[in-house]
Amino acid sequence: MRQVKIFDTTLRDGEQSPGCSMNLSEKIEMARQLEKLGVDVIEAGFAIASPMDFKSVQSIAANVENATVASLARCTKGDIDAAWDAVKEAKHPRIHVFLATSDIHMEYKLKMTRQQVLDRITEMVSYARSKCEDIEFSAEDASRSELEFLAQCFSNAAAAGATTLNAPDTVGYSTPNEMYNMFKYLSENVKGVENCILSSHCHDDLGMAVANSLACVQGGAGQVECTVNGIGERAGNASLEEIVMALKVRGDFYDAETGINTRQIYKSSKLLSNITGVPIAPSKAIVGANAFAHESGIHQHGVLANAQTYEIMKSSDVGIPQNSMVLGKHSGKHALKAKLEDMGYDLTDEEIEEIFVRFKNLADKKKNITGRDIESLVLDRRHTGVPSTYELISHVVNVGDGLPNTSVIKIRRDDDKIMQEVAIGSGPLDASFKAINRMLHKNIKLDSFSLNAVGEGEDAVGEAVVKVRSEDGRKYTGTGLSTDIIESSIRAYINGINKMEEESED
Ligand code: KIV
Ligand code: ZN
Question: pTM of the full predicted structure?
Answer without folding.
Answer: 0.88
